[in-house]
Specification:
The chain has 2 domains: 39-133 and 236-271, D-Maltodextrin-Binding Protein, domain 2, CATH 3.40.190; 136-232, D-Maltodextrin-Binding Protein, domain 2 (3-Layer(aba) Sandwich), CATH 3.40.190.10. It contains 10 helices and 14 strands. The chain has helices at 3-33, 38-46, 75-86, 98-107, 121-124, 168-175, 188-197, 207-215, 244-259, 262-271, and strands spanning 48-53, 56-57, 61-63, 72-73, 90-95, 112-113, 127-129, 134-143, 160-163, 179-182, 203-206, 222-224, 230-235, 238-240. The termini are far apart.
């Protein structure tokens, strides 16, 4: 190879290396600006985190004065307020029914959703989830006088179960043969009153939410089923699919809150138990259902 050919080849190699370097720098620059994860950059730019929640779940997301709707509070709400503060962001809440929340995250109407939502394998195919901030299990609200004729999950067959159209709890009820009576963004009272008056037989729901719901209406003939504990759960914040930087920032805040005791303090305040830790005791797993 003569000298001119060697020089030409050397120049071509330099050009190719420079092109590769520029491409990589551009990719890094895009990532820094948001890139495929533009959600975090978007939130930082507007300085606000928009959170979807229901405002109707006692202990999780509710108004401390239901009639005047003066102050939205609850475990999920206060966890999100603390996360926003640690991320140096303002926060606002969009009130909506549970059936609207996941579509609202997907469409970009809201940034995230926090409403005692279970992080299931099926949901993880369509969304990112934070690390769990709450651990629980499922139980049933039934009539006190006869447990609504339910002594096992199999006894749900033929019963009427009050619930949201797209919730895990409704899926469980349907799996065992119950007819699900769906509600909009209704308060706990509507679900529980219907069990009391016989319009429905049961509400399958989270242990903590059910416990506080029942305690809020002592005049109703309802109680938590004394023997049934099933489907251990992990509740987490719903985040748009691919928003990995946002997920990381939220997880960093949750890790700090767990380490410094903030999560435990908030859980005990609203649930009177440390729902930020996994519950003890035997909890029945449910087989044969894709949640």
């Amino acid at each position: 190879m003569n000298f001119l050919k060697q020089v030409s080849l050397f120049i071509i190699i330099l050009v190719l290396l420079a092109a590769c370097s520029n491409t990589k720098n551009n990719e890094n620059s895009q990532k820094d600006k948001g890139g495929t994860d533009s959600k975090w950059a978007e939130i930082q730019k507007k300085g606000e985190l928009v959170v979807g929640t229901s405002g109707t779940l006692i202990a999780a997301s509710y108004y401390d004065n239901e009639e005047k709707k003066e102050q939205l509070t609850g475990y999920d709400v206060e966890v999100m307020k603390e996360i926003a503060q640690r991320l140096d962001l303002k926060i606002s809440f969009e009130i909506m029914g549970i059936d609207s929340m996941l579509p609202a995250v997907k469409s970009g109407r809201i940034d995230v959703a926090a409403n005692d939502i279970e992080a299931t394998d099926k949901r993880k195919e369509s969304f990112n989830f934070s690390e769990p901030y709450k651990y629980s299990y499922s139980t049933m609200v039934v009539r006190k006088k006869d447990n609504s004729g339910i002594e096992s999950l199999e006894d749900l067959k033929g019963k009427k179960a009050g619930g949201g159209a797209t919730t895990i709890y409704s899926q469980i009820a349907e799996h065992f043969g119950a007819e699900v009576i769906t509600y909009g963004n209704a308060p706990n009272e509507a679900y529980l009153r219907d069990v009391h008056n016989g319009r429905t037989d049961v509400v399958v729901n989270d242990y903590y939410l059910s416990k506080f719901g029942v305690a809020g209406f002592p005049e109703f003939d309802i109680h938590l089923h004394p023997n049934l504990k099933f489907h251990p759960t992990e509740q987490a914040i719903v985040i748009p699919k691919g928003a990995d930087m946002l997920t990381e920032e939220i997880n960093n805040a949750l890790t700090e809150m767990r380490k410094d005791g903030t999560l435990s303090k908030l859980a005990k305040k609203f649930y009177q138990e440390d729902a930020s830790q996994k519950p003890k005791g035997e909890i029945q797993e449910i087989e044969g259902i894709n949640l």
